[in-house]
Amino acid sequence: MMCNEWETQLNEYVDGTLAAEARALVEAHLAGCAGCREAVVELRALVAGAADLPKRIEPAQDLWTGVANRIGKRETGSGKRWWRGALAAAATLVIGFAVYRLLPPSAAHHRPAGEGWVTLQAEYEQATDELTSVLAAERDRLAPATVALLQRNLAVIDAAIRESRDALARDPENVELRGLVASAAREKVELLRWATRVAT
Amino acid sequence: MTRHLGWLGFVLAVAARSALGQAPADHNRFEARWPLDSDGSVRIVDPAGRIRVIGWDVDSLVVSGRGPGRLAAAGTVGVRKLVVTGRAELEVHVPRGARVWVKSASADIDVVGVDGTLDLNSVAGAIHVVGTPADVTAETMDGPVELAGGSGRARVKTVSGDILLRGASVDLGASTLSGTIVVRAAGWQRGGTGVQRGRFESVTGDVRFDGELGRGGIVELESQSGAIALRVPATTVADFDLVTIGGSITNRLTAATAGRGVLRFSTGAEGGGAQVTARSFKGSISLDAK
User: Fold this and answer.
1) What's chain A's average pLDDT?
2) Are residues B100 and B178 in the same domain?
3) Higher pLDDT, B8 or B269
């Protein structure tokens, strides 16, 4: 186990930001401390791993193909906590990105009716359920004021979704309404994604 | 001799400290300076208090501030990280072209005169940017956001905070759940091109766009229940596509009239103009000449 009092120096040692004297002190300490030597190995692996991360992660080619098939052929044209937190963040990112791609704003108004729309709604439900579960698990990490704000705004967005869905039920072929329902759903997913990110 | 001078300095420092009184524990003072590349990256974490970032024409990073919190820093001339534990008020001077990343919980974030990329995150703090950064991403749950001056690209998101975007920006995106969005887009008068791409969406808040559209620009406005107000120059050449399901549409820009919540018309010759789309579930939509 790493000595707590050496934490900052070890980080800076690995980052290469220590002056020569400080570096020598750290090396002297490392010579006699197995725990700190292990910590340095882990920190170096972390830095190397982070450096190897791609600058941008593109979804797999078949992801968008599947999505496109479901929503129709029309192109958009214009368009222990650490691990749990990391996994939640990764899941959130993937879900958020997938839903964002599922509901491109400029295409929402023109999306054709039918199976694609039903599938989209199901995937939205799934995304919100998954994010809600992650958030529930991490809720204690949010400040009470943030939880209150979140609940208030979830109520607002739920009311908006309910209202526009009711209207859509009365007028199911209205593509404008469908677009507004999709937008509201996207807003909810974005809100949950954000809250989850803050919590983790 | 050097040794004597060293002792003299030490004694003077102790005397000065005694004379001034020890700084109270809740008023730690920070003062530090490092060299930083002109396009270097600065990452700042300050949970509470205030963060003011100022761009200057010097390739150095200078931090000053105070607070009960403690400041730690690490990095190189290419990237430097400043982390406050606790609460602090920081003033950070960065090279004008720096990339600045700030994360706070409740601290307000002010950025002035930085031309690089800004990535600003807060949970409850306000975000205020003055200048012409190339790219801005600003997200806060509860605080307001104001960008003044203009940027190449800006993406702003709040949950309940109001958003105000002023200046000559090219590519703008703003979204809020219950806040309002106001866009005052300067265009050709300020040497800009008008908004080339804009998307502004709110669930319950009002959305107001007041300014010049870029030639061929695309502007989309959407609100579930808030009002949408558009005010553009009378000479604007654009295709307008306005739809509200349960609200009303008022057009004072042209003589075109809405029928059953839909108003679609073009000004000027067909093609080459901007495209303006507004959608609302039950809010009103108004179109006026400025």
Assistant:
1) 70
2) no
3) B269
Domain-embedded: residue B204: yes
* Residue B115, domain member (yes or no): no
**Angstroms from A148 CA to nearest CA on chain B:** 11
Q: Which domain holds residue B28?
A: 19-108
Mutate to test the interface with B, among A180, A191, A196 (most CBs of B within 10 A): A180
Q: What is the DSSP string of A72-109?
A: -S--------HHHHHHHHHHHHHHHHHHHHHS-HHHHT
Condensed to tens digits (0 to 9), the pLDDT of residues A7-22 reads 777 877 877 767 778 8
Contact A153 B279 (CB under 8 A): no
Q: Is B288 on the interface with A (CB under 8 A)?
A: no
- All residues of chain A having their beta carbon less than 8 Å from the beta carbon of residue B157 are 190, 194
Domain stops at, among B63, B93, B108: B108
Q: Confirm whether B133 is domain-assigned.
A: no
State whether B104 and B166 are in the same domain: no
Is the model's pTM score more than 0.90? Answer: no
Q: pLDDT per residue over B175-228, tens digit each? A: 999 999 999 987 654 455 678 899 999 999 999 999 888 888 899 999 999 999
| Mutant choice from B279, B280, B282, B285 vs A, greatest count of A C-beta within 10 A | B279
On whether both B99 and B170 belong to a single domain, the answer is no
Chain A CB contacts of B142 under 8 Å are: 145-146, 149
Shortest distance between the Cα of A117 and any Cα of chain B, in A, equals 19
Which of A35-39, A109-113, B23-27, B197-201 is predicted with the least confidence, judged by mean pLDDT? A109-113
User: CA B116, CA B39: separation in Å to the nearest integer?
Assistant: 7
Structural contact between residues B80 and B59, judged by C-beta atoms closer than 8 angstroms: no
Query: How many domains does one find in chain B?
Result: 2
Cβ–Cβ of B75/A8 closer than 8 Å? no
Q: Token pair 């203009």 is at which residue?
A: B150
Are residues B88 and B149 both part of a single domain?
A: no
Annotate B213-244 with b (16+ C-beta within 10 A) or e (fewer): bbebbbbbbbbbbbbbbbbbeeebbbbbbbbb
